[in-house]
UniProtKB/TrEMBL annotation:
This is Uncharacterized protein. Residues 697-726 are annotated as: Disordered. The keyword rRNA processing does not apply. It holds the Pfam family DUF6541. Keywords: Membrane, Transmembrane, Transmembrane helix. It comes from Corynebacterium spheniscorum. The chain crosses the membrane at residues 6-24, 31-51, 63-80, 109-132, 214-235, 247-265, 271-291, 298-328, 348-368, 410-428, 434-452, 473-496, 508-528. The keyword Repeat does not apply.
Length: 726
């Protein structure tokens, strides 16, 4: 299938479910489209958990049943909203009151008739197109397979395994991920799976591989979300629907292209579900901010919150902190409508209903997964910096991995952001945006160099949910900085064109508006050119560098394919060290490796998994002086049904040593037989799992690319395949 057709299916899978549900629940077309992807992942995430509670498989028919249920709820909500809430859109169309039109006409026609979305839409679409096409180009040109290339990263290995687990087992529930990772113990493990569930639907409908599906989704989703979020943040920071707000919302998305700390570093690190969640956090925040004036959006806002939380729970902190500061700094003083007390109570009530509904939908999952928060909080990525260096590093958006782009001059970005902040504070009397930026900045600085006081502990609570890593926490800082810079630039343009005169001279308003639009367009083009110059230093590196084959290369892929054709390759398990990347065989062609992640499974010190890892050379080595007696390691291989051991150094991290007990010791282990060797790849069959005939067939001439050592023979010259006594 052509790549353009595959991408069309991806857009349909990620957009259509949420878009249709948003329309049915009462949103106009622009907001229905804007909130579509977070709501779609809300549906996929809840479907994965609900279906996981039943014996049924997570597949297209069961997902369709859950989606039909949500459509029914959307219709019920729409009817209730019409009956008990204020009319959703009080405007007129051709003199006809909107509330008197059929609901479907109010949903679509009024949205299309609202021209205030045109300029922001053009800016966002331009940024999405430029960002996505650039990244897709580098992905297709990557070594070792292009769109099928394996991203040699810690997180991505796990994401690929989850999608393959859904494919093979029909299990997508976030509360059942222990069944995937902890093969021996099946110990509980919670991991949010909305991203993986949605990507599996894309994979299934597009008929592509697991690896291609995660590669395309990893590129596409944040390329859509980041421009939309930054544009909406600029819109909401200005706080009205005027031309200044429209132009700022159109210009801000283009700024995403040139800031490495957002898309490019996020993609390189490989935390693609997290990046997607943060990328759409601005969309969800803006949708919540519209609820007091448009309470019909409560349903969509609640589901959008569940969507990004099920992508990654940490993203909720951006929405909650932003919404709280917005209410304190904006809505408390300027309520949506009605009397002072009544309006404030009404606003809080609507926001609370949306937030509580969203939390309740995912509360069962979060409560079950809460036991793992200590593991997340345990991460730390402090740096050797002075206090002033930590502040400036964060202000200049120069966190981890941005050094790959060399010295980045962000002077003009910060100058325009400062002008934008001044405009917001003086003209719009907006303090919530500045407060959110300052708080996000402090949380980032605390991750770089913790404050030794109570404030540091409080900031660390939020930062801990983001693994205490500055290159994650810097993202809302960067998004707000870009939005403020766009506001600063557009405000200067409006000032230079004497826009305030338009209040007194209508003709001048039109002249100023046309010039402002044209000037912003030219500036936008300049932003793109400048971004291209800055980003081109390392943008290809961000997409391609982790596809260099350092963990899984052509020799591994060749070995995976060969092993897949051998007896009982899919009937038991394949053992190896998790750190060497061999576990990618599970995502690549479904081979049942025990390692589904570079991280070690939960097994325990004296577990079968631990014995096989520590003492593989004891296989068939006897026990208590009896060379034929089975020992603890033999029993471990039987219990785990290990048929093969796969060895392929080196390891993921530089500090992880090569395990000589596997790379060297297995060649002299009596209970295994070497059956394949090609450069760094060696495969050993556990004798106990095969007959002599099968072992000889696997060692037949031509099967192994490189010669295998001779095997021991008895007095009659017969090959010895030693097995412990059963």
């Amino acid at each position: 299938m052509d790549i353009s057709q595959v991408l069309f299916i991806a857009l349909a899978v990620f957009i259509l479910p949420g878009f249709l549900l948003n329309l049915i629940s009462g949103l106009r077309l622009p907001w229905a489209l804007l909130g579509s992807i977070p709501v779609s992942f809300g549906i996929y995430g809840l479907a994965s958990w609900l279906i996981g509670l039943t014996p049924g498989r997570f597949d297209i028919p069961t997902i369709s049943v859950v989606f039909a249920g949500f459509l029914g709820l959307g219709i019920i909500w729409r009817l209730l909203a019409r009956r008990f809430l204020l009319p959703p859109e009080i405007v007129r169309l051709g003199g006809e009151p909107a509330q008197e039109l059929p609901w479907w006409r109010r949903t679509t026609l009024l949205g299309l008739a609202d021209g205030s979305w045109v300029l922001p839409g053009l800016g966002a679409l331009s940024a999405i197109f430029l960002l996505a096409t650039r990244a897709l180009k580098y992905l297709k040109e990557s070594d070792n397979g292009g769109v099928e290339s394996i991203f040699q990263g810690w997180d991505v290995h796990w994401h690929a395994s989850v999608v393959q687990f859904i494919e093979l087992e029909g299990i997508a529930s976030p509360t059942r991920m222990g069944e995937l990772q902890n093969i021996e113990t099946q110990a509980f493990s919670y991991y949010p799976t909305a991203w993986h569930a949605g990507v599996w639907v894309f994979k299934d409908l597009a008929h592509i591989s697991v690896i291609e599906s995660i590669n395309l989704a990893g590129v596409l989703l944040p390329a859509i979300g980041l421009p939309l979020s930054v544009g909406l943040l600029a819109w909401k920071l200005v706080g009205n629907r005027g031309l200044t707000a429209q132009l700022a919302a159109a210009l801000a998305p283009l700024g995403v292209l040139g800031v490495p700390a957002l898309y490019w570093v996020g993609y390189y690190v490989g935390f693609w579900p997290y990046l997607t969640a943060v990328a759409f956090s601005g969309v969800v925040l803006a949708l919540f901010m519209s609820v007091p004036e448009r309470p019909v959006r409560i349903f969509a806002a609640a589901l959008s919150l569940t969507g990004i939380v099920q992508l990654h729970p940490a993203s909720a902190t951006i929405v909650v902190l932003g919404l709280g500061l917005w209410w304190l700094g904006e809505k408390l003083w300027r309520p949506s409508a009605g009397g002072a007390v009544k309006a404030r109570v009404r606003d809080v009530l609507f926001l609370a209903v949306a937030g509580i509904a969203g939390v309740l939908l995912i509360a069962p999952q979060i409560l079950v997964g809460a036991r793992q928060t200590e593991e997340v909080n345990a991460f730390s990525a402090t740096e050797d910096l002075t206090r002033s260096e930590s502040w400036w590093r964060a202000i200049e958006l120069q966190t981890r991995h941005t050094e790959e782009w060399g010295p980045l001059d962000v002077t003009w970005l910060l100058i325009f952001a400062a002008i934008g902040a001044l405009v917001l504070a003086v003209w719009r009397r907006n303090i919530w945006g500045l407060a959110l930026w300052a708080l996000s900045l402090a949380i980032t600085v605390n991750a770089l160099l913790p404050f030794d006081n109570v404030a540091g502990k409080l900031l660390g609570i939020v930062g801990g949910l983001h693994y205490n890593t500055a290159h994650r926490l810097i993202m809302p800082v960067a998004m707000l900085t870009i939005a403020a810079a766009a506001i600063g630039i557009v405000s200067l343009v409006r000032l230079i064109t004497a826009a305030p005169l338009g209040n007194k001279v209508p003709l001048w308003w039109w002249f100023s508006a046309v010039v402002s639009v044209a000037a912003t367009g030219v500036i936008g083009y300049g932003v793109v050119v400048h971004a291209d110059k800055e980003i081109s230093k390392a943008d290809r590196w961000a997409i391609s560098s982790a596809r260099d084959g350092r963990m899984v290369d052509d020799y591994d892929l060749k070995a995976f394919d060969w092993l897949a054709t051998q007896p009982r390759a899919y009937e038991g398990h394949i053992f190896g060290t998790p750190a060497d990347g061999h576990g990618w065989m599970y995502a690549y062609n479904g081979l049942p490796s025990i390692s589904r992640h570079y991280a070690w499974p939960i097994s325990g010190y004296q577990s079968d998994t631990e014995y096989l890892d520590r003492y593989p050379s004891k296989l068939g080595a006897g026990n208590d002086g009896d060379p034929d007696a089975p020992n603890r390691v033999d029993q471990a291989a039987r219990d785990l049904k290990v048929n093969y051991i796969y060895v392929s150094p080196g390891n993921f991290w530089n500090f992880q040593p090569t395990l000589l007990r596997q790379t060297e010791g297995l060649w002299f282990t009596p209970g295994v037989t070497p059956i394949y060797h090609d450069h760094q790849v060696s495969i050993f069959a556990v004798n106990d799992a095969f007959s002599d005939k099968e072992l000889k067939a696997m060692r037949a001439p031509g099967n192994s690319p490189e010669p295998l050592p001779p095997l021991p023979v008895d007095e009659d010259g017969k090959t010895i395949f030693h097995r412990p006594a059963r």
